[in-house]
Amino acid sequence: MNKKKTSLLPKNFLFRLTFINIFIVSIFIALSSWAVYNTACFLVDSMGTMTGTNQTKFNKTLYYYLWIFSLIAMITGSIAHFYLTKRLIHPLKRLIESTKSMKKGNYPEPIEVTSSDEIGQLTSNFNGLAHQLKKNHEQRQKLVMDLSHEVRTPLANLNGYLYALKNGVIEGDPALYESLYQESERLTKMITQLETLKEWDYISEQSFFEKEMAPIGKLLHETVKMFEWQLKEKQIAVEIDAEDADLLVDKEGVLQAISNLTENAIRFYSGEGIISIKGERLANEYYIAITGPSYPITEKEGEKLFERFYRVDPSRSRDTGGSGLGLSITKEIIEQHKGDIGWKTDEAKNTFWFTLPLETACTSR
Question: Which CATH superfamily is domain 212-357 in?
């Protein structure tokens, strides 16, 4: 029963609106006709050019034609108002049909916006809302699928070893505990990165976010210091060649982007040579490139580099491949800063680079 009432809403609204308009217009037409009639009769009578019989005949004739013209105006105006109003509120009917479709869990196609008035703005906003809800739904589905795939293996390993330890099938030793601890650490890091990715997903939908002036050269040196112990342990040398420039950025976000790419260069380091970090001020942007010896990345692999949960190494092992979220986070951060990000392979070296616009930047002094 409620469904029937909802489907009749546009029609009932159109009839109510037309009735109210006809009622008001009819009153004003009747009052205007009455005023015209009395004024005309008074003026003719005051001229004194008519006899009583002719005056009475004139009054009746005028009264008759005023009623005819008034009725014609009411009927014509009502018909014109009905069809014009019907055309005007037609988008509302489509909006109602689309909202009913969304209520059933479907995501309708965008409604064509044919005007810039209030109804046009409402339609445009509804299209944006439907698109965002569809996007959020798809992201949630993909995230759940990715999480179930990524978490299943480490949890199965942990549960298997813990069950075996519990039942005395195996005995614990430092090496086993270290392995279990690292598996737990990977899960913890994955959850932390997912929280970071969710935060940047949210920021990407906002029209602005907090920025501050930051010396990009200093940020590059600070990032390398964070990996100092790993570099010493693996005996990897790092060379930094960066021009000084102050950029208006989210400092923590840019630090994380540089850190993610530096960690990648260390994690996948193979062969000989140094890790090179370059910062260069170009005409309209600041260019940062991190290059390190590693196995070549094919064009096919490169197409998926910045996808969530994709690992760069050929075996896609969790031991060397990380969580597969670092590059996705970096991409979100750089794109939110209106910059570009990419990669290139040169023989036995891979370079990951990104740019930050200089529109709101000034050279350091």
Answer: Histidine kinase-like ATPase, C-terminal domain (3.30.565.10)
Q: Beta partners for 281? A: 286
Per-residue pLDDT for the chain (365 aa), expressed as one digit of tens each? 444 444 444 557 667 777 777 788 788 888 887 888 787 777 777 776 666 777 778 778 877 877 888 888 878 877 887 777 777 777 777 787 888 887 777 777 787 777 777 777 888 888 888 888 887 777 677 766 666 656 666 677 778 878 888 888 777 788 777 777 767 776 776 676 666 666 655 555 544 456 788 888 888 988 888 888 888 888 999 999 988 888 888 887 888 888 888 988 888 888 888 999 999 998 889 999 999 998 877 777 766 677 766 655 544 444 444 556 678 778 888 888 889 998 888 878 889 999 998 864 444 33
Sheet of strand 275-281: strand arrangement: 238-242, 275-281, 285-293, 349-357, 341-346
Distance of CA 245 to the CA centre of its chain: 31
- Boundaries of every domain in the chain: 2-88, 137-204, 212-357
By the 8 A CB rule, do 238 and 224 touch?
yes
Is the Cβ–Cβ distance between 267 and 303 less than 8 Å? Answer: no
**Alpha-carbon span 82 to 84, nearest angstrom:** 6
Look up residue 284 and give its DSSP letter.
S
Whole-angstrom Cα distance, residue 312 to residue 266? 13
181 and 157 in contact (C-beta within 8 Å)?
A: no
Classify domain 137-204 at the CATH class level.
mainly alpha
CA distance 28 to 36: 12
Structure tokens at 274: 């140094």
What three-state secondary structure class fits 119? helix
Structure tokens at 79: 């018909």
The CA distance from 365 to 356, in Å, is: 19
Q: pTM higher than 0.90, yes or no? A: no
User: What is the rounded distance in angstroms from the CA atom of residue 341 to the CA atom of residue 289?
Assistant: 10
- The token pair at 278 is 């370059």
